[in-house]
């Protein structure tokens, strides 16, 4: 009997004691429990992954909806701004037309007043010329008429 044989017999006895005590079943049960725990963790991870994907899809849908709503708001704002711009342009054109009409009316009134002033001055000159002619006599009358016509012409221009 040598040392290797004794170690082999000791090992066999040790394994038999372990078999008698049921260590192999306990070891198998522990491994089975560990396998079951790992399976449970994997199923929980799969469930959490599915929830995360559903949540991500939900957020993607909400993001798309928010972007569509933002585009709608921007388009509505542009339409309102364009309408306001058109309305402001129409008001400006109306104001300019009204002011132009008022200015034309003032110009027409000023022209009428100037024509009336010229007529009045022409009548006054004619009256003065007639007075002078009547005062000075018939000889100087042709000269005074010419002077009166000249003064009326100068007042017209």
UniProtKB/TrEMBL annotation:
Residues 35-105 form a coiled coil. Keywords: ATP synthesis, Cell membrane, CF(0), Coiled coil, Hydrogen ion transport, Ion transport, Membrane, Transmembrane, Transmembrane helix, Transport. Its main location: membrane. InterPro entries: ATP_synth_b/b'su_bac/chlpt (IPR002146), ATP_synthase_B_chain (IPR050059). It is a single-pass membrane protein. It is found in: Cell inner membrane; Cell membrane. The chain crosses the membrane at residues 6-23. The keyword Transmembrane applies. Pfam families: ATP-synt_B. Belongs to the ATPase B chain family. PANTHER family: ATP SYNTHASE SUBUNIT B, ATP SYNTHASE SUBUNIT B', CHLOROPLASTIC. F(1)F(0) ATP synthase produces ATP from ADP in the presence of a proton or sodium gradient. F-type ATPases consist of two structural domains, F(1) containing the extramembraneous catalytic core and F(0) containing the membrane proton channel, linked together by a central stalk and a peripheral stalk. During catalysis, ATP synthesis in the catalytic domain of F(1) is coupled via a rotary mechanism of the central stalk subunits to proton translocation. Component of the F(0) channel, it forms part of the peripheral stalk, linking F(1) to F(0). The b'-subunit is a diverged and duplicated form of b found in plants and photosynthetic bacteria. F-type ATPases have 2 components, F(1) - the catalytic core - and F(0) - the membrane proton channel. F(1) has five subunits: alpha(3), beta(3), gamma(1), delta(1), epsilon(1). F(0) has three main subunits: a(1), b(2) and c(10-14). The alpha and beta chains form an alternating ring which encloses part of the gamma chain. F(1) is attached to F(0) by a central stalk formed by the gamma and epsilon chains, while a peripheral stalk is formed by the delta and b chains. This is ATP synthase subunit b. It comes from Candidatus Rhodoblastus alkanivorans.
């Amino acid at each position: 009997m040598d040392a290797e044989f004794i170690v082999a017999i000791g090992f066999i006895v040790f394994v038999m004691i372990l078999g008698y005590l049921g260590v192999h079943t306990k070891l198998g049960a522990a491994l089975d429990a560990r396998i079951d725990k790992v399976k449970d963790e994997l199923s929980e991870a799969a469930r959490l992954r599915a929830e995360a994907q559903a949540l991500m899809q939900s957020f993607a849908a909400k993001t798309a909806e928010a972007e569509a709503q933002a585009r709608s708001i921007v388009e509505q704002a542009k339409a309102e701004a364009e309408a306001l711009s058109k309305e402001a342009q129409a008001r400006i054109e109306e104001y300019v037309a009204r002011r132009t009409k008022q200015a034309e009316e003032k110009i027409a009134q000023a022209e009428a007043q100037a024509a009336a002033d010229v007529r009045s001055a022409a009548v006054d000159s004619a009256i003065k010329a007639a007075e002078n002619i009547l005062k000075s006599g018939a000889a100087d009358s042709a000269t005074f008429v010419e002077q009166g016509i000249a003064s009326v012409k100068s007042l017209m221009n």
